[in-house]
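Q:
Just now I want nothing more than another pair of eyes on a protein record. Here is the record:
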Amino acid sequence: MAHAQGSLAPKYSNEFLNIGIGAQALGLSNAVVAGVDDVTAGYWNPAGLANTTNFLDIAAMHAEYFAGISKFDYVGLAKPLGNGGVGGFSFIRFAVDDIPNTTQLIDADGNIDYDRITTFSAGDYAFLFSYAQKLGIEGLSVGGNFKIIYRHVGDLAKAYGFGIDAGAQYKLSDKWKFGLVIRDVTSTFNAWTYNLDSTTIEVFQATGNDLPQNALELTLPKVILGVQFKQPIKEKFYVASEINFDLNTDGRRNVLIRTSPVSIDPHLGIEFGYLKYVAVRMGVGNVQWIKNTDLTESLSFQPNIGLGIGFKNVNIDYAFTDVGDASIALYSHVFSLKIGIKNAPQKMPND
């Protein structure tokens, strides 16, 4: 939840929106932009919402990272609107709560008073309003998001931002699907303002910290390309694999293909399943070059695994994953829920 000070900071802005939602996708290392076709498409690829057929689809997820320090919450809705159009809404919160504020620890007489310690939360919020539409070309759908962002660090700082995502999916056959997402198409802007009292300013100056200034933070576009291959195997079993390529336009990143101004970050997911009842998933992502103590470099990656169980219109998914560190000590257990309501509630007859 770091933020910019002074000038634009185009790299690693709004990173909480890159963690991912839904244990199904997390178990596949987020390689889903071509195949996603449910309510979670409102986050991954809004074009995938066009496949929604239920009266209403609902999804929810709660996860805790870094040994429970950070909380991640997601709720999503999707509803057909007629004529091949589907609307969606997604809410995301990533926050650290109960952070001690020790700027008032020393009173006016220079005495340490632990009763003066308070707590605050640092939270990032996103509200995504989505729409998807099937086009006249068979198998082709497009979609978009309008997102509103709110971020705060207690009462000390807050930011408001907005942005637009666009996506497309094309189903070539029952086996092949293709996906394209452009996040932050027009770049996403966060405007930060700060509210520091005189005591906090004195503490910052005495400890050698720079005083933050009102700032504009910029998130540059990211292009994600995906292709999925799904093959039926014995009886009602299947195997589906997808590979995605994230093309970051904010300069050289420490990923597999690192160039300027575009760096390419691939991730791969494989799923084995039986109809819609059971699915076993695994994925590989977060491929990075790590500098060793002898100044040589080695390639690291993050494996993920997952499991899905479905019954009628309810799906429960599990993933063993991380937010981006290859250390097994930081892995988390993530569960998510999806519910499909097939028909509109029946009106009760008048008495």
Summary: The longest strand covers residues 85-101. The domain at 15-341 is CATH 2.40.160.60 (Porin).
